[in-house]
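Field notebook, page 587. I keep forgetting to write these up properly, so this time I am using the form the group agreed on. The chain and the ligand, sulfoacetic acid, are recorded exactly as supplied. Prediction of the bound pose follows.
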Amino acid sequence: MEISNQHLLAWVEEVRRLCKPEQVVMCDGSEAERERLVKECVSAGELIALNQDKLPGCYLHRSAPHDVARTEQLTFVCTPTRAETGTLANWMSPEDARTKLTALYDGAMRGRVMYVIPFLMGPPGSTFSKVGVEITDSRYVVLNMRIMTRVGAPALQHLGDSGDFTRCLHSLGDLSPERRFICHFPQDNTVWSVGSGYGGNALLGKKCMALRIASYLGRKEGWLAEHMLVVGVQRPDGKVRYLTGAFPSACGKTNLAMLVPPQNFAGWKVWTVGDDIAWLRPGPDGRLWAVNPEAGFFGVVPGTSSKTNPNAMEMIRRNTIYTNVALRPDGTVWWEGHDDPPPERCLDWQGREWTPASKEKAAHPNSRFTVSATQCRSISPEFDNPRGVPIDAILFGARRRDTIPLVFEARNWQHGTFLGATLTSETTAAATGAVGVLRRDPMAMLPFLGYDVGDYWQNWLDVGSRLTRPPRVFRVNWFRTGPDGNFLWPGFGDNMRVLKWVIDRCDDRAAGSETCIGTVPARNALDRQGLDLKDAALDALLRVDPVEWSQAVSAQAEFLVNAGDRVPPAIRAEHARLAARVREALP
Ligand code: SAT
Ligand code: MN
């Protein structure tokens, strides 16, 4: 492909001299390119062709066994001063990072092909959209980026002669965690990643650019880059309201984004705009507008079934790259939670013989599908709209077995910002490390912050102050458990019942009950038709226990200290107000 942008060409030349590849290939996003790369990957063993009758266009990739999730401890924000990165993200000085990584990149592509991928994040022709260019020595990365972003002409057209693009450099290196670094240079609009071929570490348009770098750009330019799904909820009268939801990785964003309402919700429909990332800007009308910068879905596979996500099951039957799932003898794939029972025998995610008697899981808990958004039958007609969609409600959700009710509403934007700021969740397999550990995850952005968290909260407040019709803000929790340890709420399609209450609140037609933490649904305001949920279970789901909450308030105080000295006074004030209300509610 002919590229005439001098800034781009100069950077490619600079990287070529450093990495010393045998060949440089400019990616154009064409079908011919895809076919060529797939063929090469299959003969090199980087992809396994699946049963093309049953799963047309589908392939399986097995990653290195120690390279299966984001490695947060090896991810750095490299600002000139430590204070700009703040206390919650890992900091490395730009000089140290450049020195360390330059040594690792030096000659790293010897004898290999260096691919140059111009990509656009966001719809073509949108003022929201941003161009990135990823240089990589991984064909798997090229194939995934082609699905997850708009590659080639849309990016080059958007860029024109400008040098305004995110420079994303990636090399597999030797895949060793000892020599793995994911470094962000927000001031230079640059990402350097080496030593991993896994999703969020290697597909640099996603978390690295669209969240860490974009959050920094958003602060400079007055908008928000968030770890959020975006959906349109259509009422039986045809009116669609849009909402976003911030949840940590592997807490069900993809399932919620593709939700199919239960039987008795005739006329209701959920439209998918995005399942992972939202870019949000105040519009001239005083509302908050959102686009999904991505073009595909990189979803968690285990647990995906016709019950939990029928739209996804249909979507991943063709043209899908599977990473780290199990392979059945007939060339189809399987995972824990699949519709089919465990196969008598198969190959696990590492290619080893597996039977139901095996101790380990067949699919890795963080195995993934990569698939184009165009294949999703619930994709919103507004998906590509350069204007974005107007947001009426924002949900903050996380995994919490106690304390947090199924849903409650914030008093206003500032209180809503506080709810997001103090989000706490149990960790999942999406990052390496222990699973099920409670940690603070402000706005579900802990692993993706591109600058100091106090400044980040201030940007939320500043954006809010420019909205004359701000979205309402809600906290949701599908994961509360009863005394037996089982989930109290069925989740999945039944989450529609919560969405309906949220939408009805936006229309001022759902009853709420005031508590010390916010407004929970009035007992009969939550639609339980067709659901076998006893009053006692509903009460347990909606219960606000002041004793539990006074512990939560103390833990929040500690966290607000750890968050550093740039925490906005408005956030501290919300905390003080909550503390006072909880104290009053104590028996
Ligand atoms: O691997 S990714 O970071 O892209 C997915 C996730 O953890 O949310
Ligand atoms: Mn995510």
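OBSERVATIONS:
- Residues 227, 249, 276 surround manganese (II) ion (ligand 2) (CB under 6 Å).
- Residues 225 and 279 are 5 Å apart (CA to CA).
FOLLOW-UP: compare against the apo run.
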